């Protein structure tokens, strides 16, 4: 079954342009130019991914992203004319999986959408259920679920990819460059702060105290490592 992508873009010509390229790539596409309508459509249609323009006329893209993230872990690709690094980081901290600045190549956008959905799809699973830290963290790759101290946690595809990568070899230090390439499959501008933003979001979900992380540990000058041992 074709994945469904919700395109939220107020510029009609660009919205139709994106729709055309995504449909040619085999996706089912829903579209709107309204932030408020986007929230309703996402609730009712449960799309597999949302392409979200930040410059919407009614409800800001940031607000839409926050609402979507509060409802589910649906992947979000943000579109914006704001090219400053701080704007990109702000978008990622709101829970976006990717950030594309205008003008952009529609073919590149399609490739990024495909890459995110491959990471999040059932084909991403390779092994079984693994516990860490005496069951404090449990990763079920076939079902793509994570539980922390017995409670299920919803992760975005990027957060999932970072956690699974770190859990591959607990204690091993993964550099930021290594993480972003393993998770995304391609180099990404500003990768250091990009990874830091996703790790910050991930820590909010899985750490007892995000200010004193024990699960994802920062290694100064190195990157990150999983601070829990794999259960026998």
Mean of residue pLDDT values: 86
In the CATH scheme, the class of the largest domain would be Alpha Beta
Spatial ordering of strands, largest sheet: 2-1-3-4-5
The fourth-level CATH homologous superfamily of the largest domain is Response regulator
Structural class by SSE content: alpha/beta
Whole-angstrom Rg = 18 Å
Largest sheet: 5 strands, parallel
State the end-to-end distance: 38 Å
Strand count: 11
So how many helices? 8
- What global shape is seen? globular
Q: Can you tell me the CATH architecture of the largest domain?
A: 3-Layer(aba) Sandwich
- State the helical fraction: 40-55%
Strand content: 15-25%
Low-confidence stretches: 122-127
Query: How many separate domains make up the residues?
Result: 2
Predict the CATH topology of the largest domain. Rossmann fold
Order of helices and strands: EHEHEHEHEHEEEEHHHEE
Provide an overview of this structure:
With 232 residues, the chain is an alpha/beta fold. It folds into two domains: 4-120, Response regulator (Rossmann fold), CATH 3.40.50.2300; 126-226, Orthogonal Bundle (Arc Repressor Mutant, subunit A), CATH 1.10.10. 41% of the residues lie in helices and 20% in strands. The protein is built from eight helices and eleven strands. It has helices at 12-24, 35-45, 61-71, 85-93, 106-120, 157-168, 176-184, 191-206, and strands at residues 4-8, 28-32, 49-53, 76-80, 98-101, 129-132, 137-140, 145-148, 151-153, 216-219, 223-226. The protein has a five-stranded parallel beta sheet with strand order 2-1-3-4-5, with helices on both faces. The protein has a four-stranded antiparallel beta sheet with strand order 6-7-8-9, with no helix packed on it. Strand 6 (129-132) and strand 7 form a beta hairpin. Helix 4 (85-93) runs parallel beside helix 8 and helix 5 (106-120) packs across helix 6 (157-168). The longest helix is centred in the last third of the chain and has 16 residues, at 191-206. It is globular, with a radius of gyration of 18 Å. Mean pLDDT is 86; it is low at 122-127.
